[in-house]
Design goal:
single chain, about 475 residues, alpha/beta, TIM Barrel, Immunoglobulin-like, 2 domains, eight-stranded parallel β-barrel, four-stranded antiparallel sheet, about 30% helix, globular
Length: about 475
């Protein structure tokens, strides 16, 4: 089964590269960034450079493979940024650069996340039906304005990290609000947003709807949310997730989750937020969100090389989602450097250094085209050693080494070619492994003496070793 799946993946990508561009638009792997802070940083003196030359950060990133930009929109923010006027201005820059555009409705005047989903001040005292109406008309008005200036979003995200709902308390679904009535109200609010989007476009337009929660590595949390939401007949296209290792677990947790979600719901999966630090140092007096070794994934140090490896492995993980349901990712706030008149808690997680110079970790995006077009151009992504002892009774150790994070299987076959034991079937990080086989099949039955074949497969590559069991 794994061999068949690997072949399908390869065929898909060869077709993707050879077909005409307009036929590939929906299948194109998303190499996105969230640039919601760019205007504010520019207005406060932030400068972005590549090889010492000052340039528009959007164009720098575009030249290195970025093809999609995400923007958050707040209702009436006190800061004056991320409002409709600023969003429309940035949308023009995005489309002029030739990028696609994801619009993220927070439905708040400020940050909306799992711990806060505050209604806009203008909606605070509305009855529930009036709240639905306001959400519908606001959503429709925003999309209509963007459409009229020829910057129609390609995707729209209704709510930001809404695992506990949005527009609290009317649309809250956690803790004491985890009731059928509250889920029905959350669904009504989301569906009002869906109608607002759909009623602002014509049949020739296409906008995909994203529902976004934060639980990148939490499969039970994702199942809980989307099982409840889909039971309310909410119509959407894409499951959006946030994934930050210091909050959401190891890459293996994310891999297992997206693998399950794609198969369980049959929907496309998109990482709408992710990032990783390139240093634990700082350059301003604003406390950084990521600042300790304890927050890091042990496999990825806080270096430019570690940031690069994290991104490359994350991309590989998403490409391996079943049925090509892994759409891609958005790197969150790569531009959030410390500006002369504006500090940043994200300066060490950006894709530009403290002086605004582009980091070499951008090569993770650059290399993707080569990775897709030349899947066999590199050496094996793993190495399978001969088992020891061999011959053996009652058990033997199988050692192998993975060069990079990948989906893999390790299986045992008898002399007739029948599969008798699965030792590994899942994602594993780069590293050395030792697996003990006890000479039993998948049912726990002892196998007879004889010749067996140990086979490892990852991506499009496979290796085997002969094992001799002597009872």
């Amino acid at each position: 089964m794994v061999r068949i799946y690997a072949s399908i993946v390869l065929i898909f990508f060869f077709v993707l590269l050879s077909a005409q561009e307009n036929a590939n638009q929906q299948a194109e792997f998303i190499k996105g960034v969230d640039l919601s802070a760019l205007l504010e940083i520019e207005d406060h003196g932030g400068v972005f450079k590549e090889n010492g030359i000052s340039r528009d950060a959007l164009l720098i990133l575009k030249d290195h493979g970025v093809n999609f930009v995400r923007l958050r929109i707040w209702h009436r923010p006190v800061s004056g940024y991320n409002n409709l006027a600023k969003t429309a201005l940035m949308a023009e820059r995005i489309k002029s650069a030739g990028c696609k555009f994801l619009l993220d409705f927070h439905y708040s005047d400020t940050w909306a996340d799992p711990g806060r989903q505050t209604k806009p001040a203008a909606w605070q005292n509305l009855a529930f039906q009036a709240l639905q109406d306001s959400l519908y008309h606001y959503t429709r008005a925003v999309i209509t304005i963007l459409k009229n200036q020829n910057t129609l979003p390609d995707m729209v995200q209704l709510g930001n990290e809404i695992v506990c709902g949005m527009l609290w308390n009317d649309g809250r679904v956690c803790d004491q609000q985890n009731t059928p009535q509250q889920w029905a109200q959350l669904a009504a609010l989301i569906n009002a947003g869906v109608r607002g989007v759909n009623d602002s476009i014509v049949p020739d337009d296409s906008i995909k709807i994203v529902i976004h929660i934060d639980r990148g590595g939490d499969n039970s949390g994702c199942r809980w949310f989307f099982d409840h939401l889909l039971a309310q007949n909410v119509d959407f296209d894409i499951i959006g997730l946030s994934y930050y290792p210091w909050w959401h677990g190891a890459l293996s947790d994310l891999a297992a989750n997206v693998h399950d979600l794609a198969q369980r719901y049959g929907k496309e999966i998109l990482l709408v937020e992710t990032a990783y630090p390139w240093t634990l140092a700082w350059t301003d007096d604003t406390n950084n969100i990521v600042g300790t070794v304890a927050q890091l994934d042990p496999d990825y140090p806080a270096t430019i090389e570690g940031q690069t490896s994290f991104l490359k492995d994350l991309i590989q993980l998403l490409r391996a989602v079943p049925a090509n349901k892994g759409l891609g990712l958005f790197y969150w706030a790569p531009e959030w450097i410390s500006a002369p008149r504006l500090g940043s808690p994200w300066e060490n997680v950006a894709l530009f250094d403290f002086a605004g110079e582009l980091l070499n970790s951008i090569t993770a995006f650059d290399s993707m085209a080569a990775d897709l077009s030349e899947p066999n151009s590199s050496s094996h992504s793993f190495r399978l050693q001969q088992n020891y002892p061999n011959p053996f009774n009652p058990e033997t150790t199988i050692r192998f080494e993975l060069a990079r994070f990948s989906y893999m299987t390790l299986k045992i076959y008898n002399a007739l070619g029948a599969q008798v034991r699965t030792l590994i079937d899942g994602f594993r990080a780069a590293g050395e492994y030792a697996v003990i086989w006890d000479g039993q099949d998948d049912r726990g039955q002892k196998l007879n003496s004889g010749l067996y074949l140990c086979s490892i497969q990852s991506e499009d590559q496979q290796q085997s070793r002969k094992l001799l069991l002597l009872r």
